[in-house]
Hints:
Elements: H1 18-28, H2 35-39, E1 43-48, E2 51-58, E3 67-68, E4 75-76, E5 82-87, H3 94-99, E6 102-104, H4 106-110
Antiparallel strand pairs: 1-2, 2-5, 3-4, 5-6
Amino acid sequence: MPRSNRPRRPRVTGNPSARELNARRAERSDDDFDLERVLADFERLESAPDGDWRVSTVTTRSAAKVYTCPGCSRPIPPGVAHLVVWADDHLFGAEAGIAERRHWHKHCWRTRTFRYR
Length: 117
């Protein structure tokens, strides 16, 4: 028997079909969800031989200025995701550590050489 091209009648029962449920989920899904943007607001503590460091991620959307990476001495242009790093155990307190924060390329931070204080 050939298929009909006429649209189906709406279901009378209160239980929607799987196709209808998937269509509703697709309408509700938010395409603007960006995991990188969500995690960028959180800072993490990293311990290394050269001390404890607070590390925060800067996303491509929020990178608006040119910074110089202390690891490679090259500029970090606007629109490039990178890290902001500051000393957690600064000698003069947390405010001094935040004042001396630096912007690093992700690769430069991972492969840095540890300088002992």
